[in-house]
């Protein structure tokens, strides 16, 4: 059983009761589906974090919409692994981190934990900096006060988790809605050529080595270590099932939610590239940071468009900071059974962001380096998930079928190879 203990509030209890009615066949259609919505929505925040903003802005500004097909491909791979993570939690009632502890040798688990904790800190660095940048540009305050405000808001939101799973799911869902609506507004303000968008979304094209590196970066910023860990924690014992028939139904609802939530996340990422392409590609292709994007949007599209853009950045940073901390907490508790107060955990994960600002390091460079760290850590949860989801002694009749396992292995090899290219590029090795 997952070690994340939930004290069920009335809202959570009503959700469980509604889910049980759905499993009994008393609720159908959308009403039957809604009690199971939540885990994939929370996990989808990882696909709309500030690291995605930085990569997508560069891609759209320099190469227009020609890299949209990379977003589509990366999203399909992400759906596969998030669905497997969710299935692991639903079937076993345990998180991926907990199953690693019970199925792998202790020395290996300790190494996996250290790597995963470093990845969690790198994740929080990116999320905190993104939120602080958004606050700073939106209100005029400095980055350091922005970090403090972000920390306070994040801690307050995390306390909702003590009241059960539903309140936090609704809050994160609200942030997702803000980000999505912000980009709907942006596309109305600066509409693209939709025929070209449709063509580029499904036609692979790499213009040069720079486009290839950005494509690698898009994939690297999409499949995230903490999201793979977190999804299994969110589904483990969320909705009690008494038999395999009920588990199959929960899995069907879970796969449906993954498809919807990650499709929406993918469309937001596509909208980021499209907005940057429309606003910057022909006039400012060198745009590479959130700050310069905001400064350039104001004279190009007006203050309203620039403010909407910053609002989406702020919503992304705050929500992804909450989700990143939640994932880190679950990894620590489930993998090695370490328990520390939430405020201590919060301070530990906040520390790198404060150090970066205090020493005057460039925030965008720090965001890029955090993505490199995540690329190093990604093989740990990805390979562990593949191994565990394919084992019948762990999953029983729900173990991955051979064709699913083969497809997942091919996708994993592809993602890990691209991450290796990204790491080589960060180390100054040029293959092109």
What is the gist of this entry?
The chain has 432 residues and is mainly alpha-helical.
What does this structure look like?
The protein has 432 residues and is mostly helical. The protein has one domain (40-426): Amino acid/polyamine transporter I, CATH 1.20.1740. The chain has helices at residues 10-23, 29-33, 39-44, 50-63, 68-92, 96-103, 106-139, 143-158, 165-189, 194-202, 209-220, 225-235, 244-280, 290-301, 303-336, 342-358, 363-377, 379-389, 392-395, 402-426. α4 runs antiparallel to α11 (209-220) and α5 (68-92) runs antiparallel to α13. The longest helix is centred in the middle third of the chain and has 37 residues, at 244-280. The protein starts with 9 loop residues before the first helix and ends in a 6-residue tail after the last helix. The model is unreliable at 1-9 (pLDDT under 50).
Question: Mean pLDDT, nearest integer?
Answer: 83
Low-confidence stretches: 1-9
State the domain count: 1
CATH superfamily: Amino acid/polyamine transporter I
The first-level CATH class name = Mainly Alpha
Radius of gyration: 21 Å
The portion of residues assigned to helices is over 70%
Largest sheet: none
Which structural category fits the helices and strands?
Answer: mainly alpha
Strands, count:
0
Measured distance between first and last alpha carbons: 48 Å
H/E series, N to C? HHHHHHHHHHHHHHHHHHHH
Question: In percent terms, what proportion of residues is strand?
Answer: under 5%
């Amino acid at each position: 059983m997952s070690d994340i203990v939930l004290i069920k509030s009335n809202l959570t209890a009503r959700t469980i009761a509604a889910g049980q009615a759905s499993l009994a066949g008393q609720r159908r259609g959308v009403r039957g589906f809604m009690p199971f919505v939540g885990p994939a929505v929370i996990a989808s925040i990882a696909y709309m974090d500030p690291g995605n903003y930085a990569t997508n802005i560069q891609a759209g500004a320099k190469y227009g919409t020609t890299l949209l097909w990379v977003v589509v491909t990366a999203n399909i791979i992400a759906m596969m692994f998030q669905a497997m993570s969710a299935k692991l939690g639903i079937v076993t009632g345990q998180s991926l981190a907990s199953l690693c502890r019970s199925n792998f040798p202790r020395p290996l688990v300790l190494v996996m934990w250290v790597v995963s904790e470093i990845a969690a800190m790198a994740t929080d660095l990116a999320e905190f900096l993104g939120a602080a940048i958004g606050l700073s540009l939106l209100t005029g305050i400095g980055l350091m006060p922005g970090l403090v405000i972000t920390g306070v808001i994040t801690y307050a939101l995390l306390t909702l988790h003590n009241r059960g799973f539903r309140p936090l799911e609704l809050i994160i869902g609200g942030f997702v809605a803000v980000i999505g609506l912000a980009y709907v507004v942006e596309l109305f303000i600066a509409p693209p050529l939709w025929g070209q968008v449709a063509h580029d979304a499904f036609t692979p094209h790499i213009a040069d080595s720079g486009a290839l590196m950005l494509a690698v970066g898009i994939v690297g910023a999409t499949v995230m270590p903490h999201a793979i860990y977190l999804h299994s924690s969110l589904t483990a014992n969320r909705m009690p099932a008494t038999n395999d028939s009920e588990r199959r139904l929960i899995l069907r609802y879970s796969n449906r939610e993954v498809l919807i939530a990650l499709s929406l996340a993918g469309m937001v990422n596509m909208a980021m590239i499209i907005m940057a392409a429309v606003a910057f590609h022909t006039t400012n292709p060198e745009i590479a940071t959130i700050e310069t994007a905001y400064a350039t949007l104001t004279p190009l599209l007006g203050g309203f468009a620039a403010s909407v853009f910053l609002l989406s950045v702020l919503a992304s940073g705050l929500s992804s900071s909450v989700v990143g901390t939640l994932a880190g907490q679950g990894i620590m508790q489930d993998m090695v059974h370490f328990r520390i107060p939430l405020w201590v955990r919060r301070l530990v994960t906040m520390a790198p962001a404060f150090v970066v600002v205090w020493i005057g390091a460039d925030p965008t460079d720090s965001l890029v380096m955090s993505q490199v760290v995540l690329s190093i850590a990604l093989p740990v949860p990805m390979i562990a998930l593949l191994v565990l989801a394919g084992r019948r002694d762990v999953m029983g009749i729900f173990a991955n079928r051979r064709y699913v396992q083969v497809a997942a292995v091919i996708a994993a090899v592809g993602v890990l190879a691209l991450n290796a290219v990204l790491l080589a590029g960060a180390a100054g090795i040029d293959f092109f």
